[in-house]
Amino acid sequence: MLWSGSRPSDRSPKLSPSSAPRAPAVSNTAHESDPIPPLRPEDGTDAPLPVGSTPLEQALITKLDEDKAQDLVLIDLKGKSSMSDAMIVASGRSHRHVGALADHLLRVLKDHGLGKAKVEGLPHCDWVLIDAGDVIVHLFRPEVRSFYNIEKIWAVESGHRVDARA
């Protein structure tokens, strides 16, 4: 079909800036009064960070805290197990958060000369295990962490655990 010198777009009505419909102005002040609550308390009432006994443990704990890992637990395995000296257990809020935590910890390990750390579970990011020799790191999604309850194996109290007897 041929149009006589005009294109279909030429036939639509032209709107000038003054004739265009305008949405009413909306103020953000209503939304500013309802701030989003922080994921972590800012008043310092949350549990203190565990203190690592080695520079590597301390670097890993610091990085997890910077990256907003939740329920951080450091388990001292010296004298309990010959596989490692310490175990760090933490939770991420989602698959993506757990994956990002793992990626950032691998960078910290590489900076400390442990670029060949063994990693398991990274594609699914439900439970990621990083074996750095002297330190083993477990990163969980909260649902997976409460299901496996790994702290119970080592008899460590943690804030996310629920008493099954209750």
How would you describe this structure to a colleague?
There is one protein chain. The chain has 166 residues and is an alpha+beta fold. The protein has a domain of 79 residues: Beta Polymerase, domain 2 (2-Layer Sandwich). It is built from five helices and five strands. It has a five-stranded mixed β-sheet. Helix 2 packs antiparallel against helix 3. The longest helix has 17 residues. The radius of gyration is 26 Å and the shape is globular. It starts with 28 loop residues before the first helix and ends in a 13-residue tail after the last helix.
* CATH topology value of the domain at 75-153: Beta Polymerase, domain 2
Q: What average pLDDT do the residues reach?
A: 75
Q: How would you classify the helix and strand content by structural class?
A: alpha+beta
Order of helices and strands: HHEEHEEEHH
> Which CATH architecture of the domain at 75-153?
2-Layer Sandwich
Percent of residues in helices:
25-40%
**Overall form:** globular
Ends apart, CA distance between termini: 77 Å
CATH homologous superfamily assignment of the domain at 75-153: Beta Polymerase, domain 2
In terms of DSSP E residues, the strand content is 15-25%
Strand order of the largest sheet: 1-2-5-4-3
- Under CATH at level 1, the class of the domain at 75-153 stands as Alpha Beta
What low-confidence regions span 5 or more consecutive residues with pLDDT below 50? 27-45
**Biggest sheet features:** 5 strands, mixed
DSSP summary: helix tally: 5
How many strand elements? 5
Radius of gyration: 26 Å
